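Class, study these two lines:
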Amino acid sequence: MQIECPSCRAGFEVPKRMLRDRTRPLRCSQCQTVFPMPDPPAPEPMTWQEPEPPPPPAAAPPPPAWAVEEPGPEPLVAQESSEAANDASSRGLRAAWAASIVLLIVGGLAAIIKREALVEAWPPATRLFSALGLM
């Protein structure tokens, strides 16, 4: 809000959040005059104006020749070849899952077989093997 000092006419821009307390006096930073907070400006009354009617539609010109859509070329990839690609990726995914399961089983068997060396290298493993009944 724009506030003007009544003594020296210096103008200041004061944020609205600082003007919430209407009883607080203001002090001019130029002449040090203390004055009461001025009343906020009254909002302008709203007036209703009828909107102007839109102009009548003019006849649309025909689209340019380059804008006429023509059917595009047929896709190069046939439906059968995309199904074959899906089958190949499906087989690859199944092989990856099988390899992951085999690695987990081999790792678990190796940990059981070499459990004494594993417990010696990492003593907290004793609790795991004891819980499984292997110690």
About this structure: The chain is about 35% helix and 5% strand. The CA atoms of residues 10 and 23 lie 21 Å apart. The longest helix spans residues 79-113.
